[in-house]
Amino acid sequence: MKVTTRGILLALPLLAAACTFRSPPHSGDDGDDGPGPDGSVTDPDDPDGDGIRGDDNCPLVSNKDQADRDGDGVGDACDNCPAVANPPQATLGFDQPVQRDHDADGRGDACDLCPHLASATPDADQDGDGIGDACDPEPTLRNPPPYWNGFYDAPDAAWQAPAKGGSRSDWELVRRDGGALGWRQGALDTSQRHQLLLAGSRAESFVQTSMVIDEVAGPGGASSIRSATVSYGFGLNGLGQDLYFTCGARRDVSSGANEVVLAEQVDDGVALNLIQTNSWTAGMIGVPLSITGRADRTGSGGSTLRCSGSDGTLTREPMFNTATSPNGQVGLRAFGTRVWFDYIFIVEPRPAS
Predict the structure, then answer these.
(1) Among 216, 265, 299, 338, which one has the highest count of C-beta atoms within 10 angstroms of its own C-beta?
(2) Residues contacting 178, CB < 8 A, separation 6+
């Protein structure tokens, strides 16, 4: 069962903290050509016994008709999106191309309306905007199409580091033990933040991710704070400084305190003490954390900011208002941490034009 909306901010129990997509039945041979239970022997050229040898679009699922209504080369009988073209793609950890299904719920990313939240049944979508109710910040108001990235591939040219935020090469595609794929920021230093931004500005932002902080830098440097967050509303202020919001987790290495943090930041610091933190009493290092950040425009042109951090048991949700506009870019940020991000899902919560 999927998470449901609670008010205007989703509380996110951890449903699929890591990329668990699995190879579909068309993607390879099971390697067993020996006798079956009835003593029969599998034909290695026709393992599914449907009489199609060689160019079978479902080699492990019997489908004599070879129906393929979306024309993606995968037969309907074994296609995880039979009505939406999603051809198999080369993916780290698989010896053959696969149809990607991040949450492993049997519906491929291409036709899953909440590709990061597993569910036993197709997603409800009461406003018909192509965003499932379980991950829609406004389930009764049509919004523009979401941005989804399951982090199966290394960051491409659509993702860039700001001038004061390290470099794109700081971020790499990493396959964790167990097979989960994601982006890891591996530079463990306290001299600067390491930030990655998606091209394009959004008028308002709703951002979801799951992350694992693997390591925190020890004491030293100008600040004792170490953090891993999503960032949104990124732009430049009148002084040419980076101005943006962050939502995520942080540790004060001088005290050992862990917190879920929501802040408005200028470069690497907090803007005019515009910050709210909630104490985090559970583990934070090596623990999958689901993060949701949101910025909505107020009537005066400022922003209502919300943040949710959850490990599936404990949830913290700081919030505050600011006079700063929510316009800007969305991305990922780390300061003094090695952190692995599983995916990013972005909605612009405004009516579609």
Answers:
(1) 265
(2) 18
pTM confidence score: 0.88
Taken in order of first residue, the domains within the chain and their CATH numbers are 35-99 (4.10.1080.10), 148-347 (2.60.120.200)
Residue range 231-244, pLDDT digits in tens:
999 999 999 999 99
**pLDDT tens across 269-302, in order?**
999 889 999 999 999 999 999 999 999 999 999 9
223-234 pLDDT tens trace: 999 999 999 999
What tokens appear for 94 in the block? 């698989």
Cβ atoms < 10 Å from Cβ of 217: 17
pLDDT 10s digits, 298-320: 999 999 999 999 999 999 999 99
